[in-house]
């Protein structure tokens, strides 16, 4: 009986020691669990805060994206309008350039024909001038001959007149 009693008491002490050990482990685990719960609570709050910030950032980004898309579309439309205007202006200027080129070519042809005509006219006038100069020189020469002959004739007539006058005087 004593042996049994000692044995049971030994078991009770062992069980109490084991219970004390488990109790300490339970308290340590409770403390750790409390720390884990607090940490989890902080993480959940932080996660909620991050989710809120993420949602706000996402909304801000969507607003920014829409504004940027609208601005890009507006800029694209403006660019297309400017391109259209420049393209039509380019076509007009190209047509004007072609017209000016044609006019230049026509004027060059006209200039060349006028130059040729001027050269021919100049040659004709030069020939006429040379001919007129020859005719003038010939006429001047003829007139000089005529003047010389008339002077000679005038001298002869004066001489004859003086002779007649002398004869009249002698006859008187």
Automatic annotation (TrEMBL):
Signal peptide start and end residues: none
Assigned keywords, A-Z: Coiled coil
Domain of life: Eukaryota
InterPro entries according to UniProt: GOLIM4
Coiled coil, from the record: 5-60, 90-142
Keyword Transit peptide among UniProt keywords: no
GO cellular component: Golgi membrane
PANTHER family: GOLGI INTEGRAL MEMBRANE PROTEIN 4 (PTHR22909), GOLGI INTEGRAL MEMBRANE PROTEIN 4-LIKE (PTHR22909:SF23)
UniProt-recorded name of the protein: GOLI4 protein
